[in-house]
Amino acid sequence: MNYALINRYCFHNGVSQRPLTYYWDRANFTSEQDRFMWKQALEGAWIEKKCAELAPDLQLTTKLNPDLIKLLVSIDNPMRLKGTVATLIELAARLGDKAAGLTQGYFIPSSSIVYLEHGSGFGRLKGTFSSRSWKELQSKKSPSVERFLQTFQLLADIRQTQTELNWDLLVQHLCKPPYEEPNRTFHRLSELEDQEESDEPRSCRTVVNELYFEELISGPVLEVVDQFERTALDLELYD
């Protein structure tokens, strides 16, 4: 995994090709956005400085590493053309590298850059990132019994893999407004009627209390909810 990323970022212009977040409305920058942009630029400069210190013979090429290139090509999936860096990352995921097991391929339209590795399909979280529950968790929807129950069950499964979770970030994502506006086209009429009764989203405490009241929390999920509540209280997001 380390060797693959050294090649991507140091020998294949990966620093400039990595996904970046920009905030264009500079007149209305928040302090958090300004700091994020500053850190993002600093990270790129730091990586470029470290890459400049590396020996050029670390580059993965047919001339320097003919046997390794031949081996990587031989084990690649013949059904789809894939780069040697992507193959190295997937091999690392198969062998248990935690970072490699989190990777997902993506395409950057503006630059035509394609990263093909899908280490998440081989690591300890295999199937997690392609699941409906994960995609639902990624959205920024307001708290609801259905959303929280699905999320807590997913987190309980992830904990079984000995994966450490960033609870502060998770609680802020689930409990801190603003939330996405619901798409009325795809919501049931009853859900819309419930929403129209109050413009204010339900609090995390209210939703969790309802889960307890309906006896929907038990087993490993109970441990997840307990950690969730304690973190929300510490962050003062459990009103």
The number of helical elements comes to: 11
**Numbering strands along the chain, what is their spatial order in the largest sheet?**
1-2
The strand count comes to 2
Fraction of residues in β-strands = under 5%
Fraction of helical residues:
40-55%
Which structural class matches the secondary elements?
mainly alpha
N- to C-terminal distance: 43 Å
Cα-atom radius of gyration: 22 Å
* Secondary-structure element string: HHHHHEEHHHHHH
Based on Cα principal axes, name the global outline: globular
Q: Major β-sheet, in short?
A: 2 strands, antiparallel
> Uncertain segments of ≥5 residues (pLDDT<50)?
none
Mean pLDDT across all amino acids: 85
Tags for this entry?
3% strand; 11 helices; 239 residues; 51% helix; mainly alpha
What does the model show?
The protein has helices spanning 2-11, 14-17, 31-52, 66-75, 84-94, 132-138, 145-159, 167-175, 189-197, 204-213, 220-234, and strands at residues 106-108, 113-115. It has 239 residues and is mainly α. A hairpin with a 4-residue loop joins strand 1 (106-108) and strand 2.
Short note summarizing the structure:
It is built from eleven helices and two strands.
Write the layout of secondary structure elements.
Layout: H1 2-11, H2 14-17, H3 31-52, H4 66-75, H5 84-94, E1 106-108, E2 113-115, H6 132-138, H7 145-159, H8 167-175, H9 189-197, H10 204-213, H11 220-234
Antiparallel strand pairs: 1-2
Helix pairs in contact: 1-3, 1-5, 6-7, 7-11, 8-11
